[in-house]
Design brief:
- The structure is a single chain.
- The chain has 373 residues and is an all-alpha fold.
- It has three domains: 55 residues, no CATH class; 153 residues, Lysozyme (Orthogonal Bundle); 65 residues, Endochitinase, domain 2 (2-Layer Sandwich), CATH 3.30.20.10.
- The chain is 41% helix and 2% strand.
- A two-stranded antiparallel ribbon has the order 1-2.
- Helix 6 crosses helix 13, helix 7 packs across helix 9 and helix 12 packs antiparallel against helix 13.
- The longest helix has 32 residues.
- Pfam families: Glyco_hydro_19.
- InterPro entries: Glyco_hydro_19_cat (IPR000726), Lysozyme-like_dom_sf (IPR023346).
- GO terms for molecular function: chitinase activity.
Length: 373
């Protein structure tokens, strides 16, 4: 409705100032750790110019009004974008009643909560706990914390956004993801996924506390692409660009381009225009953000296989693939995700960074990886 659109526009207007403040904080901390600014990663050095240009701007945030400020019962809005919460946190909006909580999701954009028109629901009896299945059986919050010790750091623009709970909620939409029943294979697939997403979202620098690989899941969206107009393919009539939108990289795998936003929107909402008209949702909703990455990971794009099939061993290379050195394993996932830039250049820093994150993730998960992969 018009009120929601107004809130979204106001939120986007405040985003640039917020990013500038976060970037300035990261730069200050990095400078304290290392006086050699040239050791900072490329993204931070490029972003420094934007932070300097906005040094006189007072960073403010704009949030949606809490729709439940004046009602005693607040419930989750019953429509498709938030179905991953069903069975997990059906009472996620309850603390927003009477304005008693200011945290997410009470002021989320777009709004996720609404006043209940009926009496307070009677909670269903809590069933006795049963055995965990799939990822939940072994991918614990402790492992997540060990993998991403600084994901909640105030120095990161994604501070507190990428969480263990949001990841598991998103994974429910993809039952086969890291859940083949072969624990070693499942751990290896998860390590590969975390390796690629860590590479995309890392803010680590050579002298960073804990090492550069400890600063993954720090960015929730791409910051150094200017207006990001290069991600609008005006020839794509199936998923057309919408005026005023940019399709910069967002989410753990930095979903980019109007084609990917439109295709993911169809999969997530049943409507391609939902994200084509409001692409920033991918950087505002943590479950949707993780879903965008897992969807990209699980979806084949002919002639490319899916990253999932590659890591699970269900993809078999053709004769042409073999001649070009394509084989099942982690290297092929890089080819699928960003092969046009990173493949056939074995000494590229980006490739080495991906491999380092993959090996680190596998080590923490307790699974071996082959050098040939």
């Amino acid at each position: 409705d018009s009120a929601t659109r107004a809130v979204r526009q106001a939120s986007m207007a405040g985003a640039a100032a917020l990013r500038a403040a976060c970037i300035a904080s990261i730069l200050a901390r990095a400078a304290a750790s290392s006086p050699q600014n040239r050791s900072l990663p490329k993204q931070l050095r490029q972003s420094a110019r934007a932070a300097d240009a906005t040094a006189e701007v007072t960073a403010t945030t704009t949030e949606a009004p809490n729709p439940c400020d004046s009602c005693p019962v607040c419930v989750l809005k019953p429509y498709a974008p938030y179905e991953p919460y069903v069975g997990i946190k059906t009472d996620i909006c309850a603390p927003c009643a009477l304005g008693s909580q200011r945290a997410w999701p009470c002021h989320a954009v777009p709004t996720k909560c609404e006043c209940s028109s009926g009496p307070a629901p009677t909670p269903a009896p809590t069933p006795p706990p049963g055995p965990a299945h799939g990822l939940r059986a072994w991918f614990t919050s402790e492992l997540f914390q060990e993998l991403f010790p600084h994901a909640g750091s105030s120095s990161c623009t994604a501070a507190g956004f990428f969480t263990h709970e949001a990841f598991l909620a998103a994974a429910l939409s993809f039952p086969g993801f890291a859940d083949s029943g072969d624990l070693a294979r499942d751990k290896r697939e998860l390590a590969a996924f975390l390796g690629q997403t860590s590479h995309e979202t890392s803010a680590g620098w050579p002298t960073a506390p804990g090492g550069p690989l400890a600063w993954a899941y720090c960015w929730r969206e791409e910051l150094d692409c200017g207006t990001c107009s290069q991600y609008c393919d005006t020839d794509d009539q199936q998923y057309p660009c919408v005026a005023g939108q940019n399709y910069r990289g967002r989410g753990p795998l930095f979903l980019r381009g109007n084609h990917n936003y439109g295709a993911f929107s169809e999969a997530a909402f049943g409507d391609k225009m939902t994200l084509l008209e409001d692409a920033a949702q991918v950087a505002h909703d943590p479950v949707l953000s993780f879903r965008s990455a897992i969807w990209f990971w699980m979806t084949p794009r002919a002639p490319k296989p899916s990253c999932h099939d590659v890591m699970m061993g269900t993809w078999q290379p053709s004769q042409e693939d073999r001649q070009l050195g394509r084989a099942p394993g982690f290297g092929m996932t890089t080819n699928i995700i960003n092969g046009g830039v990173e493949c056939n250049v074995s000494t590229a820093a980006a490739v080495e960074n991906c491999v380092a994150f993959y090996k680190r993730s596998a080590g923490i998960l307790g699974v071996s990886v082959g050098e040939e992969a």
